[in-house]
Amino acid sequence: LGDEVPWCSAFANHIAWLGRAPRSKSLRARSWLQVGRGISLDEAEPGDVIVLQRGSGDQPGPEVINAPGHVGFYAGRSGEFIEVLGGNQSDTVRVSRYPKSRLLGVRRIA
Question: Consecutive sets of 10 residues in the chain, 110 residues long: mean pLDDT of each?
Answer without folding.
Answer: 76 98 97 98 98 86 92 97 96 96 96
